[in-house]
Amino acid sequence: MRLVKQLVIVSAVAAAGSLSVGAVQWNVPLTLILGVATAVLSLLAYAWVVRWTEHRAPVEVAVAGAGAALGRGALIGVGMFAAVIANIAFVGGYRVIGWGSVAGAVALFGFMAAAAVTEEVVFRGVLFRIVEGRIGTWAALALTGVLFGLSHVFNPNATLWSTIAIAVEAGGMLAAAYAATRNLWVPIGLHFAWNFAEGAIFGTDVSGKSAPEGLLRSVMSGPTALSGGEFGPEASLYTLVAGLAVTAGFLRLARRRGHVVPLRRRAARNDATAALSR
């Protein structure tokens, strides 16, 4: 019941905000304002519903330390995409053909802020966090990763491969980021920075969607397996490898910090065994 309440309320706020952002059809000031407003309202709705349904402070979105955590996530996201696009460019799959649009990049800032925050509060803040408490970290990571991939299956130019890639490299990675840090700021920063670098800086398609020109005007070509084809770099094998590497790093950190939640039945069995041995 708690999962349903949180999911309904947070999803409703996120959907309303996202629809308003889409309705202004890339008007630069309105997209920026509505995008940032959607991000803020989604976080406020999440904090409120956690207090209401769980009777606790929503520490995973606490303001204290938010800037540093967002910055760490953003550095990982930008660095990861820069490494991916550099590898694609090295094999001739990405080429800059000129300067794009500062206005387009500003609009994309608002759009990506809304997308990153709404998806993180729904998929990591509600789904992964609550499901993890019932079935453990590993199973929750796999389940919510699949759901995250399926949420992109109707995107333009989506394929079975792009859906699998998104599930693994993004769904798994962002859940692992939450598991390692136990806050939503790092996955939000990572998610936003990846998307912003992809569309607003390097001028490529994001999850199959075309957008206003970013700072660079570019073309992509070559084998789909390397460039990602019409879906964009997220369907590239380079992105899959990078996502798996970052996921492994976060999971290792989660394990070292003792943040991996065991399957409840296994945990109960271990507790009973320990009690009998005393």
Give a concise summary.
Helices cover 72% and strands 4% of the residues. It is built from ten helices and two strands.
Considering the chains and any ligands shown, give keywords for the structure.
mainly alpha, 2 strands, disordered C terminus
Describe the overall structure.
The protein has a two-stranded antiparallel ribbon with strand order 1-2. The radius of gyration is 19 Å and the shape is globular. The protein is built from ten helices and two strands. It is mainly alpha-helical and 278 residues long. The protein has one domain.
Largest sheet: 2 strands, antiparallel
Average pLDDT reading: 92
The whole-angstrom Rg is 19 Å
Shape: globular
Low-confidence stretches: 267-278
Distance between the termini: 37 Å
Main sheet strand line-up: 1-2
Number of domains: 1
Q: How many helices?
A: 10
- Strand content bin: under 5%
Order of helices and strands: HHHEHHHHEHHH
Structural class, please? Answer: mainly alpha
Helix content: over 70%
> Got a strand count?
2
Please specify the SSE layout and strand pairing.
Layout: H1 2-23, H2 28-54, H3 66-90, E1 94-99, H4 102-135, H5 137-150, H6 160-181, H7 185-201, E2 216-220, H8 224-227, H9 237-256, H10 264-277
Antiparallel strand pairs: 1-2
Protein name: CPBP family intramembrane metalloprotease
GO biological process, one term: proteolysis
Pfam families: Rce1-like (PF02517)
